[in-house]
Amino acid sequence: MKQQIKYAVGALACLVLAAQAYAGDFVIIVNKDNANEVNQDLAAKAYRGEAKTWAAGGSINALALPEDNGVRAAFDKEVLGKAPSQTKAMWAALMFSGKAAPPKVVDSEADMVKAVAENKNAIGYVSAKAAGASVKIVK
């Protein structure tokens, strides 16, 4: 019994470390035809509801991964300085006050890449390995 618990704890530790390593590996993506200058600061403003339009025109269409996604956690922490639950609370307050609508949540990284590739005004984030050639990486 002790040996089984030892293996279970070891396996769990490996999974946690793998998830943490994977989670920090993200890139910000935009549509290939997006000619705007996009950097992490602009992305932060878009995901905080502070930037709503692109400099060249058009509404910024920010997309997000689900709250329990490791890439989302890394993005929220590094770009917004918040945990996903804090980001959710921030958006609830912005919605309640009528200041901004939250990013649309997509189900997966593949859905994120597809949505950004199909929308010139979209911005999103995925793991570096998920980005692919159909989108432009800006970070």
Your description of this structure?
- The longest helix is centred in the first third of the chain and has 22 residues, at 2-23.
- This protein has a five-stranded mixed sheet.
- It has a single domain, classed as Periplasmic binding protein-like II (D-Maltodextrin-Binding Protein, domain 2, 3-Layer(aba) Sandwich).
- The chain has helices at residues 2-23, 40-47, 70-80, 84-97, 109-118, and strands at 26-31, 61-64, 104-105, 122-127, 135-137.
- The chain has 139 residues and is α/β, with parallel strands linked by helices.
Residue fraction in strands: 15-25%
**How would you spell out the order of helices and strands?**
HEHEHHEHEE
Read across the widest sheet, the strand sequence of neighbours is 3-2-4-1-5
CATH fold type: D-Maltodextrin-Binding Protein, domain 2
CATH class: Alpha Beta
Arithmetic mean pLDDT:
86
- Figure out the total of helices: 5
Largest sheet geometry: 5 strands, mixed
Structural class category: alpha/beta
Low-pLDDT segments: 5-23
Structural domain count? 1
Give me the CATH architecture, please.
3-Layer(aba) Sandwich
| Anisotropy-based shape | globular
Query: Which range best describes the helical content: under 10%, 10-25%, 25-40%, 40-55%, 55-70% or over 70%?
Result: 40-55%
Number of strands: 5
Radius of gyration over C-alpha positions, nearest whole angstrom: 17 Å
Distance between the termini: 48 Å
Spell out the CATH superfamily: Periplasmic binding protein-like II
Task: Summarize the model shown.
The protein has helices at about 1-25, 40-45, 70-80, 85-95, 110-120; strands at about 25-30, 60-65, 105, 120-125, 135. By secondary structure, it is α/β, with parallel strands linked by helices.
